[in-house]
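Write out this protein's structure.
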Amino acid sequence: MNALMSKMKVLAVDDNRTNLHILQVFLKKLGHEVILAENGEEAVRKFETESPDLVLLDIMMPVMDGFEAARRIKGMTCDRWTPVIFLSALNRDENLVEGLDAGADDYLTKPINFVVLEAKLRSMQRSLSMQQVAIDSLHRVQAISDNVLDAIITSDEQGVVVSANQSAERIFGWSQSEIVGRNIAILLPGEFSAKPGEQEVPARHKDGHQFPATLSISQVTLDNQQMRICVIRDITERKQAEQQLRANARQLQTYYDQTQAEQQLALRLMEKQLHRSGLRDRRLKYKVIPAEHFSGDIVAAARSPDNRFYALLADATGHGLAAAISVLPVLALFYRMTKLNRTVQEIILELNQQLKESMPVGRFVALTLVCLDEQSRQGEIWVGGTPEAFLFDRWGRATKTFPSSNLPLGIVASSELGGEPQSFSWESENQLVLYSDGLLEATNPANEQFGTSGLIQAIANTSPGDRFQKIEAALEAHQNGTPASDDVSLMLIDCP
């Protein structure tokens, strides 16, 4: 509680100037501010302009007596209590009763006992201090309430509004004076539960339009009367955001479904292009592991009309659908030219020309192309941009290495490409191993790459029949669940 008020503003009213002067001196000695009036009419006028804290009021005065002045003063103090103490020589009971009925809070007979008056003033000071504490607390609560974004409305059990904060005016368009005294149904036209807890309800603005709101009700008892405190929040923006989110979700789902359908169609078309009958040749084993849905690595195999065996492993820039599309021209040309018994050199030059003309700058295809003449046990191999290829003997030893000595296709014109194919021969049960850089760069949980050493170790001391499975197993064990960051492709070709 605040300390006792240090001073009061006191309105002293008496038609006797001597009495007024004595009161003024006494009150100023006690530290109070004094306002003087010589009749009831002047007292009412000064009360209205000066707003004193306390009134010392004589009864018997000209123009307007103290009883009438007290009634008028009390009629003007609706928002706060201003004590009125009658000072009069009239000490009969009927005078006392009339004074109290007129609104007086205390009575002191003349001649004035200043010791008693000082005691009464201290008592009034304590009461006024408590009133000020209550008023300050009310102002703080009202300031908090008015700065809350939600409408706070208090009503009785019948729904009649007792109070409303400023947010209620903003949300509903009604002024506080228009809301108070009316039923809350003007704001909440629908049915709602009076039980504690939050619920969604329709709310109505003064202009008639309805909007969504949440309602929280608390039951309290004030002055032995059950009251409801309703907290109402306009959730129009939230509902609009939810609707927009649902609409966006539907659009995203539609887009996703369309994309999935398109990807499935593209995948079927790619598979039809990739999985030609030549890949089912008994001398070939291969594997392609895409980093995404589509692989930028491709493998192809075919036999020419004179029974030469061709095999191709290509790795386009990047991975995914864009990389997969980049290598489609390679497939079409490869199968067309192998049917024409073209040499490795002719196929490479044609592929390079096609890619150089069709692919944008920065896109290219690394490629290894092999042609085996099984009758003469002679072969040709061209390696451009892909890792070196190996020829392994029956015991898993690398007997020949074919380095990547050429540029990838699609970078320079065919006249600048250069690089003759490398010729080789083989022994019984020899095998060629071709692969993309995705196999070498496959990492384990410690971020260590599989590398050429991992490939050679996987093949060492293996028989030709189970060599492909040994490589697969070694790669899987090395990765140990770590996803590949690039497409992986592997071809193993038996040299008969």
